[in-house]
Specification:
- This protein is of the alpha+beta class.
- It has helices at about 30-45, 55-65, 115-130, 145-150, 160-165; strands at about 5-10, 25, 80, 85-95, 100-105, 135-140, 155-160.
- Strand 5 (about 100-105), helix 3 (about 115-130) and strand 6 form a beta-alpha-beta unit.
- The radius of gyration is 15 Å and the shape is globular.
- The termini are far apart.
Length: about 180
């Protein structure tokens, strides 16, 4: 049986990533309730929809910002707003010393406008400036639009379990 999710890896040293001219905001500058609405509406009806309530999304956002998945990397977590409301966001944590994109979401009304790609480019440039050499994410195998985006950015399917990731990566993924 094939696992339902895959771990994908991007080598940050190999490519050049230039963020768009768009204004990105620090994700912590946005109210948790507004982020929860964005996450809820972005996940609704997708293969990753687990029917979370707004309250559950508020709790999840609080939890990851308080290091649920390892230290939250605020310098690599961003939001895009429109009319003072978040329309897309990306978050990153240091999961067992490995940079991990924990979430990337775009409101359905703003999809297919390259926001995900722009957020990924901004995150990648930020991680490179912080001297990281790789970044990982977990994608549902059935989320073909997301996998297509990640592959277009250079991400490659790496494995299906974290033991393989952690055993094949140096503990300190920053350049010396």
């Amino acid at each position: 049986m094939t696992p339902s999710k895959r771990i994908m890896k991007l080598d940050l040293v190999a490519g050049t990533y230039k963020p768009a001219d768009r204004q990105f905001q620090d994700i912590t500058s946005v109210k948790i309730t507004d982020l929860a609405s964005l996450f809820s509406e972005s996940f609704a009806g997708t293969v990753d929809d687990e029917q979370e309530t707004l309250e559950e999304w508020c709790e999840e956002i609080r939890a990851f910002s308080l290091n649920k998945y390892g230290p939250f990397i605020n310098d690599a977590s961003f939001v895009v707003t429109h009319d003072d409301m978040p329309i897309a966001a990306i978050t990153c944590s240091l999961f067992k010393n490995v940079p991990l994109i924990t979430y990337i979401v775009t409101h359905p009304n703003f999809q297919r406008q390259s926001l995900g790609k722009e957020l990924l480019n901004k995150l990648i440039a930020s991680l490179k400036s912080l001297q990281y050499t790789t970044v990982y994410l977990v994608a549902s195998n059935n989320n073909l639009p997301a996998i297509s985006l990640y592959e277009s950015m250079g991400f490659q399917s790496f494995d299906y379990n974290w033991d393989a990731v952690l055993n094949n990566s140096p503990l300190n993924l920053k350049t010396q």
